[in-house]
Amino acid sequence: MKYIKKPIPVEAFQTKKPVDIKTNEGIMHANVGDWILTGIDGEKWPVKKDIFEKTYEKYKE
Question: Which domain of life is it from (predicted)?
Fold first, then answer.
């Protein structure tokens, strides 16, 4: 069977400095230009710039 992820809006910002993020999986590092996302339960995780651009688009309310 195949599944597709539900379109759930997330908060996101692009980091201007290297930063370590506390995620549900532990501490993850984000480099300059990476995106920091916040999910529906307040969880945070970093996403590399190129992956973010391939998988996310601006939410139109």
Answer: Bacteria
Instruction: Give every strand in the sheet of 11-14, ordered side by side.
Output: 11-14, 35-38, 44-47
Q: For residue range 7-30, what is the model confidence (pLDDT) as tens digits?
A: 889 999 999 999 999 999 999 999
Domain ranges of the chain: 11-55
Gap between the Cα atoms of 10 and 40, Å rounded? 7
pLDDT value at residue 23? 95
Length of the chain: 61
CA 20 – CA 34 distance, rounded (Å): 11
